[in-house]
Amino acid sequence: MRKRKLIGPTDAQTKGMVLFLSITVFYAVLVGDFGSGRSHFQFSESDSLKLDSLAKALDAKFKEDSIRKASEKQPELFAFNPNTADKSTFEKLGIKPAVAGRIVKYREKGGVFRKKEDFAKIYGLSRERFELLKEHIRLPKIASERFPKKRFERKRQERKPKVLEAFDINTADSLQLIAVRGIGPYTARRIMSLRERLGGFVSEDQLSEVYKIMPEGLDNLRKVCFVDTAFSPWKLDINQASFKDVLRHPYFDYEQVKVVFNLKRRAGKLSSFDQLKRHVPDLRPELADYLDFSVSQEPSELQ
């Protein structure tokens, strides 16, 4: 394949320059002065005719090149849409055939020109040509609608509100919990974990104690859950439980458990929550529902 020159003189111009230089050198050899005295050569009439003939041939060649360039078809400038124009349209605009084909292939692979500057990124399109065509580029709104950006964006689906049936918070599974708006899998797991460590919920208000539960989720959960009036939570046998068992309960802290066991060593058996509350500071009232004192057979020495 013959390579086209992108810059520099054409072949005709090169030949003309070589011919011109040859005549100049020939003339210098005949009549020039190279530092060794004047030339002893004299032009004959035939030599003069040859020189005149060469000069006329060179002049005719230059005129021929000028006429050919003037007759060449000049690029047209008109409004065009780079997203819809075909290859021949690009060529009429003065874009080289190879570059025009590259534009078409870019579009065939899904490429879209969303703004004028995108057209300047086409490989092989000179900056001068782009600046000449820039004012003629048309990107109507319809093009943006045909190739919307949103097809590359993840569609965000709005969560439709669900009408849920009320359920017992002490028997609910994770699927029932996550169906509530604002309750995710992690929150559902924490609700069930707290329920297990407590021995069950005795009030819906205890749901606020769930670690990191969101206000929206808490409000929505309270609207659809309930505690059965017949429900009785699992109770911790305070007189038989080990130190670790008592400490595992969410409503006891370490210092309180120490006081409880010191009290048990001194009193033997604990008989009531009131007795425990008098000796252990800051006990939560809800603990009364979770402690079992029935093992005690005899009243303790400390009342």
Automatic annotation (TrEMBL):
<keyword id="KW-1133">Transmembrane helix</keyword>
<protein>
    <recommendedName>
        <fullName>Helix-hairpin-helix domain-containing protein</fullName>
    </recommendedName>
</protein>
<dbReference type="InterPro" id="IPR010994">
    <property type="entry name" value="RuvA_2-like"/>
</dbReference>
<keyword id="KW-0812">Transmembrane</keyword>
<dbReference type="InterPro" id="IPR051675">
    <property type="entry name" value="Endo/Exo/Phosphatase_dom_1"/>
</dbReference>
<dbReference type="Pfam" id="PF12836">
    <property type="entry name" value="HHH_3"/>
</dbReference>
<feature type="transmembrane region" description="Helical">
    <location>
        <begin position="12"/>
        <end position="30"/>
    </location>
</feature>
<keyword id="KW-0472">Membrane</keyword>
